[in-house]
Write a structure and sequence with these properties.
- Helix content is about 55%, strand content about 5%.
- It contains 22 helices and 6 strands.
- The strands form 2 sheets. A 4-stranded mixed beta sheet has the order 3-4-6-5. A two-stranded antiparallel ribbon has the order 1-2.
- α8 packs parallel to α10, α9 runs antiparallel to α10 (about 235-250) and α17 (about 390-400) runs antiparallel to α18.
- The chain is globular.
């Protein structure tokens, strides 16, 4: 029996004497038969939820052209495997790209060794200039991320089941598998979902260490190290996880021995987790290049003050620390954002919470709130608050201080952790709570299914759905370059006689490979632009000067994937 299950689920003892319609001999047998059916039914439900998520991810992935970041990660993954070189994409540690590489090895892409361009040019060379089929390469690159996304769904299920039993586990898994943001990012060869998945795995195993620390603290250390070796944005969660590791060890010992000795042992446990964490990061870099050959980029940003002290004090390989310098360089830049129809320079601290409000199903938002309240209000669940709510709160607080208001993917850990929290509504053990939870989960499922296959530009019903998301948000919330293939199909099927095509595309794909030979309307006077004008919605959101004039003098006639608008210019 897992923690909390006995107190939160219905008791398993014999029926009370005198209950009408229940005979003493038949009661235990009936319950035994129900218990025997419970496990296979649970397995069937888990498989069904994961299967629908797998279907959604796979069928979405095969329709989407490469998003902006993917070619960089895929090209770097190929270089890792073939050349054992760390020279590309140092701003992100290697583990996520090594996961991608487990798929690209089956695609057998052609790429001449020794490429000397930048990482964006590397991705373009691999996908479009080496005789490869980008559809095939991208599918194999995305497949491992889809697999780990499904595996992390099992972690979410296990975490919630530990807290509130089987029904809670299924509730959490349903919210995870129907989340449009998780389906979107789980179907791409990117790093966001793997990083969030490793953090929630670390939190779950640290929670379980309250009972069996010698088994689960090493697992928590490996998971934490894996998170840090995937994305540097997970570093703010490390102090929280280390403190929870020490606290879990302390709790596991109860009142055994003097308090000072138990405190010393708890501190040692946290230090042990930190040592293993560091070892995992080193092992990941050594897996790419056992000799750790590294030359700092010539344009490596200079970092000063506390940030420099932080970097120099990190016990990680030099490529990792230089990658942190690159990230701090990005943070020192001024980026343009777009929120609720307003274009601005810089960043807004409330951007990510606002974007989550737009892009999260309404039923999920309600369950997040109700679950968080139940988790904090109920005495028997309150011990789990630091494990379930504190890591995402710290990560979100850190993310809101960033300079890049580019998408909810920077907060993808929120739907992962809050799926676990939402399941705690079940702990109320009231019929209305069960009915309300079931109804809200069904609402989430319907909202998610209605968006198929356009999960990336999803917004909930209060904001008009996927076709209206571009009015509220931009960039990877809506338009990440994913619909270049769909645009080619649309032009070929609906506009075969239009030979004057003009294109303003935001993405890393090569339009000509897909058969789109559009000209750049910004390179000629507006009076010379006639016929079809296809514009990425992010470019529309940021339109100024010549592009704004072109759009104002055009008529919108079509929409492609809710991310590209086709205009007709007279």
């Amino acid at each position: 029996m897992t923690y909390g299950q006995r107190s939160l689920l219905a008791p398993d003892g014999p029926p009370a004497a005198g209950v009408p319609g229940v005979s003493a001999p038949d009661g235990p047998g009936r319950r035994a038969r129900l218990r025997r059916l419970r496990r296979p039914l649970l397995v069937v439900a888990v498989i069904a939820l994961l299967t629908q998520m797998a279907f959604a991810m796979v069928t979405t992935a095969v329709q989407q052209s490469p998003t902006i970041d993917e070619p960089v990660y895929v090209g770097t993954a190929v270089v890792y495997v073939r050349e054992h070189s760390l020279r590309f994409n140092p701003e992100h540690p290697p583990l996520g790209k090594l996961i991608i590489a487990t798929g690209t090895v089956f695609a057998h892409p052609r790429l001449k060794p020794g490429f000397h361009g930048d990482q964006g040019q590397l991705g373009r060379r691999l996908l479009y200039e080496s005789g490869n089929d980008p559809w095939r390469v991208m599918f194999w690159a995305r497949l491992p991320v889809m697999v780990v996304t499904l595996l992390f769904g099992l972690v979410v299920f296990g975490f919630a089941r530990d807290l509130v039993g089987r029904a809670g586990g299924l509730t959490a898994l349903a919210l995870y598998t129907f989340s449009p943001d998780l389906i979107t990012n789980g179907s791409l060869a990117t790093l966001d979902v793997p990083a969030a998945g490793f953090v929630v795995t670390a939190a779950w195993t640290v929670w379980r260490a309250r009972r069996r620390p010698l088994v689960y603290l090493p697992l928590a250390a490996v998971a934490t190290g894996a998170a840090v070796a995937t994305k540097m944005s997970t570093l703010p969660a490390v102090p929280v996880l280390l403190a929870l590791a020490g606290w879990s060890y302390w709790r596991s010992k109860g009142s055994e021995g003097p308090a000072l000795r138990r405190a010393a042992h708890a501190l040692a446990a946290a230090v042990g987790v930190a040592v293993v964490l560091v070892a995992v990061v080193w092992a990941v870099y050594l897996a790419v290049d056992p000799r750790l050959r590294w030359t700092a980029p010539a344009e490596l940003p200079k970092v000063h003050g506390l940030r420099a002290l932080l970097i120099d004090g990190m016990p990680f390989p030099e490529p990792y620390r230089d990658g942190m310098r690159v990230q701090f360089g990005f943070e020192s830049m001024t980026w343009r954002g777009y929120l609720f129809g307003r274009l601005y320079s810089g960043s807004l601290w409330y951007y990510l919470p606002a974007a989550l409000l737009v892009k999260t199903p309404l039923g999920m938002l309600a369950l997040w709130l109700g679950g968080a309240l139940a988790l904090t209000a109920m005495t028997r669940l309150r011990a789990a608050v630091p494990y379930v709510l504190l890591p995402p709160a710290v990560l979100l607080a850190a993310a809101t201080q960033g300079s890049r208001d580019l998408g909810v993917r920077y907060a993808i850990f929120v739907p992962v952790f809050l799926a676990v929290a939402a399941a705690c509504v079940i702990a109320l053990r009231r019929r209305w709570a069960y009915a309300l939870t079931a109804g809200l989960v069904a609402f989430v499922a319907v909202s998610s299914a209605r968006a198929y296959p356009f999960y990336l530009p999803y917004s909930n019903e209060a904001f008009g759905g996927p076709s209206k998301t571009h009015l509220w948000l931009h960039d990877s919330n809506v338009d990440w370059g994913q619909d270049l293939g769909r645009l080619a199909d649309r032009l070929r099927e609906r506009y075969p006689d239009d030979h004057d095509v003009w294109l303003v595309y935001k993405g890393s794909g090569v339009p000509s490979w897909y058969g789109i030979h559009g000209r750049d309307p910004l390179k000629v006077p507006p009076g010379e632009v006639h016929g079809l004008l296809a514009v990425s919605d992010t470019s529309i959101a940021k339109a100024q000067g010549g592009l704004e004039e072109l759009i104002r003098g055009s008529r919108a006639i079509d929409d492609v994937g809710h991310s590209i608008t086709i205009f007709r210019r007279p």
